[in-house]
Amino acid sequence: MIQPTRSIFIPAILLFLFTLLALGVYSQSSLNYRWYLNANGGISQLYGDVQNENNPFSKLSNETDYGFGVRVGKYIGPYFTGHLQFLATGLKGVKDKNDLNFNSDLMEVQLGTTVNLFNLLFGKKKRTFSLYATTGIGAALFRSEVRRSNGNLVNDYGYTTSGTREKSTRKLPLFGR
Hints:
6-stranded antiparallel β-sheet; elongated; disordered N terminus; 6 strands; mainly beta
């Protein structure tokens, strides 16, 4: 289990590093048709049937997990951008009155494009405001488990690394749960 003081500093440091990675440093060369890299992080909360409350602030103590993502893309002219994106997060839920604990690991991979609609419809020029449309195709992989507080498995769903339903065969390398 992560110590309370450590659990505050790790997300703060990661957020700072992800912010630095998202900033670009450019010389006097043209910014058109460049590659970009975006790293992001944050928290995730489950709003489902295994939860005590709907208030996001009360869920911070034991129904919140961390997630991260990476996106790499290329500007394809002034109208289009193509990208490949990876997201990974965990979801948690607790329902005390039924003695249930929910855990899920979620990974998503997406290949997509973004269109600058104003440039496409009204020509390329500097604007204060633009409208974008994003589309893509992707896949989501997840593993979820519902357990009692004594550790007994109530239900599970998602991928496994073998044909068994044992937790040891259902670990995600990113989270190790």
